[in-house]
Amino acid sequence: MTTLPGNAREVRDEDAFDVEAVAAWLTETAGLRGIPDVRQFSGGASNLTYLLRYPDRDLVLRRPPAGAKPSSGHDMAREYRIQSLLAPVYPYVPGMVGLCTDHAVLGSDFYVMDRVPGTILRTNPPTDLPLTEADTRTLSLRIVDLLVELHGIDPEAAGLSELGRGPGYVARQVAGWTDRYAKARTDNVPDFAKVTEWLAGAQPQDVAQTVIHGDFRLDNIVLDDDDPLKPVAVLDWELATIGDPLMDLGSSLAYWVQADDEPMMLLTKRQPSDLPGMPTRREIVEYYSERTGLPVGNWGFYEVFGLFRLAVIAQQIYYRYHHGHTTNPAFKDFWVVVGYLESRCSTLIDRYQKENR
């Protein structure tokens, strides 16, 4: 049996499920025998992810949190289907084992996939993974190449064109995330009026319609155990869709904390993007533009949007904590992050407006 992943913990009481019922379903679906040992991955803040350990096989189960309302972010059948269709054209998705839509088993839809063994770069790299500055640079650009490759897939050829809603993706995203924030706002966070008004007025037309991941970060990438400079899998496809690739890049870089960022930004770090050798956000944008040929002259819009979107995600998570839907203490100070991100967006808007006068 492989080594237990470092972020796999005992299952929280509020997130426990009927293991025997799932084991029976896996026996019928995949021919697996016995009751797996179950651990919960601690990194997720949206859908819940569990490690199921059989004597000769490790699996991963994904399901929505208790009380989650149906949405694209909690649609297990959609997430399962996207990865199944991507597998023939994008060899970085885990193998799918099965989808369960019978709520008698777990109380919601869920799916099970193979666990991809390897290293995941979280806030700080593992101590047994020495990376030189040159190694770090090579790895980071290879990871950007994963996004470039994803954005180069033909949605129609992959059978994914049905996910798209046609032109107007940028406008729909601005309106949608603005509405989500209003619904999740609590009385201890700012209203983001300046930010949302600027985004609504500054939004460009879509530059393309491609397959996008929606949550592309270093801690959603698995690295080969034998060659840590080789990415072998991309995880967490819950937000994948057809949309504007620059919006995907902007959302990704909202998580890219640089070593020279201000102290509060450094406190939001959840991936080692500040290591020596890591490119800056601007360098990544320029590299991506060179590889794809897409124009990035209006990058300020995508940067602000990415940070606003991150603020909405943090606020939605905090809303659940604020109203007692989860007791995970990791979420109790997310409102502070939301306030900081509003300030950062406002500062960037002022800078871009001054540069474009």
List key phrases describing it.
single chain; 357 residues; alpha+beta; Phosphorylase Kinase, domain 1; Aminoglycoside 3'-phosphotransferase, Chain: A, domain 2; 11 helices
What does this structure look like?
This protein is of the alpha+beta class and 357 residues long. The protein has 11 helices and 10 strands. The chain has helices at 19-30, 76-86, 103-106, 133-151, 169-184, 193-202, 245-253, 263-267, 281-292, 299-322, 334-355; strands at residues 8-9, 37-41, 48-54, 57-63, 96-100, 110-114, 210-212, 221-223, 231-234, 241-243.
Question: In a few lines, what is going on in this structure?
Answer:
The protein has 357 residues and is an alpha+beta fold. It has helices at 19-30, 76-86, 103-106, 133-151, 169-184, 193-202, 245-253, 263-267, 281-292, 299-322, 334-355, and strands spanning 8-9, 37-41, 48-54, 57-63, 96-100, 110-114, 210-212, 221-223, 231-234, 241-243. The protein has two domains: 8-114, Phosphorylase Kinase, domain 1; 133-355, Aminoglycoside phosphotransferase (APH), C-terminal lobe (Aminoglycoside 3'-phosphotransferase, Chain: A, domain 2, Alpha-Beta Complex), CATH 3.90.1200.
Query: How many separate helices?
Result: 11
SSE succession: EHEEEHEHEHHHEEEEHHHHH
**CATH topology name of the largest domain:** Aminoglycoside 3'-phosphotransferase, Chain: A, domain 2
Helix content: 40-55%
Q: For the residues shown, what is the average pLDDT?
A: 93
The largest beta-sheet arranges its strands as 1-2-3-4-6-5
The main pleated sheet reads as: 6 strands, antiparallel
Number of domains: 2
CATH top level label of the largest domain: Alpha Beta
